[in-house]
Amino acid sequence: MTSELLQLLGFGILAAGANILGGLILFPSSLHDSYRKSLRYLLALGAGFMLAVTFFEVMPKTIEIWQRGENGSNLSLPMLLLLGGYLLTQFFEHTIAPHFHLGEEVHSEHVISTRSAYTGIGGLMIHTLFDGISIAAAAQIDVKVGFLVFLAVFLHKFPEGFTIGSMIVAAGKGMREVLIATSLIGATTLIGVILFYFAGNYLGFSVAYALPIASGVTLYVAASDLIPEVNHHGGKNPLVSLSVFAGVAIFFGVHFIVHFVIAD
């Protein structure tokens, strides 16, 4: 087993673990309210960090890869793939599966059917699969970029697990079902990492095609999933909005450390 695969497996396992912990924070219930209060800030930090990673790392690397190819001056295809990744997430999350506000489904007035809960989880599995693909594709280009993408994914895994858990609780299920659902979502991220690693290294699947699709998915999660949730939960609290900018600032801090301080 190569060191690259071990590192990717570590990223995948940590991301999956964050999903599970995010769901289990619902138990005991006394932790729920205190965690929910801090959830909005974590969401905002994750959104800002993810947006910065997308625009300053993933998209530039995508353009650089395609410019080195035979049709370097024509970026229509990678931009089409990026748009496809964005629309693919929209289709699965909001056309096939219902959308839920993070953490609200635990209240009685938001009780949902078991079928709706599992349909929602099915939609989330699409973008968690691409979470793993994004990490592996970025790491194949540059291990430092892979680490930054992993951090962006990791930051929204706790709220994601909380969302999954709240849907299951709202459907009348308990801790066992929450653990199964969050483990399933977490495993999907790990599967995405493993699938792309072997597809890229052994089947010759080009990162040039996977990276723009994954970039579109990441952009959707940040701009169309997380930012609206931040606005919804933040209300008139300016600190929540400022946390988005803090997430961007954290990215640049980590980016500087990773690229300029840590020796190659």
Describe this structure in words.
This protein is mostly helical and 264 residues long. It is globular. The longest helix has 39 residues, at 29-67. It is built from nine helices and no strands. The protein has one domain (3-261). The protein has helices spanning 3-24, 29-67, 76-96, 114-141, 143-155, 157-170, 175-202, 207-234, 238-261. Helix 3 (76-96) packs antiparallel against helix 4. Helix content is 82%, strand content 0%. The mean pLDDT is 82.
Radius of gyration, rounded?
18 Å
Estimate what percentage of residues fall within beta strands: under 5%
* Element-level helix/strand string: HHHHHHHHH
Tally of helical segments = 9
Number of strands: 0
Share of helix, binned: over 70%
Through-space gap between termini: 22 Å
Domain count: the total is 1
Unreliable sequence segments: none
| Net shape | globular
Characterize the largest beta sheet: strand count, sense, and whether it forms a barrel: none
Q: Quote the average pLDDT.
A: 82
Specify the structural class.
Answer: mainly alpha
